[in-house]
Design a protein that fits this description.
Elements lengths: L1 H17 L7 E4 L8 H9 L5 E2 L3 E2 H5 L3 H4 L11 E6 L3 H13 L4 E6 L4 H4 L11 H14 L4 E6 L9 H10 L4 E5 L14 H8 L7 E4 L5 H11 L3 E4 L17 H18 L2 H14 L10 H9 L3 H15 L1
Parallel strand pairs: 1-9, 2-4, 3-4, 4-5, 5-6, 6-7, 7-8, 8-9
Helix pairs in contact: 5-7, 11-12, 11-14, 13-14
Length: about 325
């Protein structure tokens, strides 16, 4: 199965590397809760994301057939290759969830052993699995055996700086049959603080015993940084997370004008309202509006930002965005 995943990476890497403004390899959109819904994924794909991932999905909630969780499995052929990521701490639930996910026909099933937030890691799932390596490996092996799709893993360097285990763990995961490995260059104890350390990622990639694709992740905030990551560490792909908030054009090899970027934000708002409803669509878009770099540098923007994030109707919010357009012009 790793060959199938490798073919996906190689096909998009060649295209990206030969484009004007290419970074030398494939850029992936990271799976992020309340961020990587289908509308946002489609925008990122349109602007050049080589592969996209759904929001991470709770295995237990999926097995219980929780409607809001099942809805996260909705994918489109237009966003392929696409991965669905699941997390959990129970072996049987993870296996059953993987079988359910397989029916949604993603290109890849990804196992989340890297989420550091308390409500996930604190309960032994996500990065919490780094404190129970035998169970982490047992889940991985049994999921690989249970499905006929490539299974990949996303994890961190280790639980804390006294337990950086990724080099050994990468070999163990490969032995379980995974098709690829994404490594975030922080420990769980770091959460998202400090700087991501890519040196261990590079050592994993340079290990002659590793033959599966290695995807690097952490602190990639520009295409220039992504290019350096490919050059310095030789990774097969680079996964980008928080830098895409309010910035689906991150993946574009061509720079958009501020006017074009506001057009994209308005389109994202319309997509979310059509997909959900006006009120919740606005709420769902706020995280991106609060984080977008488009409005940085506008003098005395604080009150406008507050108004934008408090807007309750589409007309009100579009009106504010149009006023922002005038401020920038």
């Amino acid at each position: 199965m790793y060959r199938k995943f490798k073919e996906i990476i190689e096909s998009v890497s060649v295209a990206e590397a030969t484009e004007k403004g290419g970074v030398g390899g494939a850029l992936f959109l990271a799976p992020m809760e309340d961020v990587t819904d289908i509308g946002f994924r489609m925008l990122c794909k349109r602007f050049g994301a080589a592969m996209v991932y759904t929001e991470f999905v709770s295995a237990e909630a999926l097995v219980r057939d929780v409607k809001s969780t099942v809805s996260k499995l909705t994918i489109s052929d237009d966003e392929r290759p696409v991965g669905i990521q699941i997390y959990g701490r129970d072996v049987d639930a993870m296996v059953e969830a993987a079988k359910i996910v397989e029916q949604a026909k993603p290109d890849v099933i990804d196992l989340n052993f890297g989420c550091p937030v308390k409500k996930v890691a604190g309960k032994g799932a996500g990065a919490g699995m780094l404190q129970n390596i035998p169970k982490l490996l047992d889940i991985t092996k049994k999921v690989v055996e249970a499905v006929n799709l490539p299974v990949t893993v996303k994890t961190r360097l280790g639980w804390d700086h006294n337990n950086i285990i990724i080099e050994e763990l990468a070999e163990q995961l490969q032995d379980c049959g995974i098709a690829g490995l994404t490594i975030h260059g922080r420990t769980r104890s770091q959460m998202y603080t400090g700087e991501a350390d890519w040196e261990p990622i590079g050592r994993v990639k340079a290990n002659p015993r590793i033959h599966i694709p290695i995807i690097g992740n952490g602190d990639i905030t520009s295409r220039e940084q992504a290019k350096l990551a490919f050059e310095r560490y030789g990774v097969d792909a680079v996964m980008v997370g928080r830098a895409t908030f309010g910035c689906p054009w991150f993946f574009s090899p061509e720079e958009l004008t501020a006017d074009q970027k506001i057009d994209v934000l308005e389109e994202q708002l319309r997509i979310n309202m059509e997909r959900i409803d006006e009120k919740r669509g606005i709420i769902h878009t706020r995280r991106h509006l609060a984080s977008t770099p488009v409005f940085k540098g506008i003098p005395n923007f604080r009150q406008t930002r507050i108004a934008m994030l408090r807007a309750e109707t589409a007309d009100e919010l579009i009106g504010i965005l149009e006023s922002c357009r005038e401020m920038i012009m």
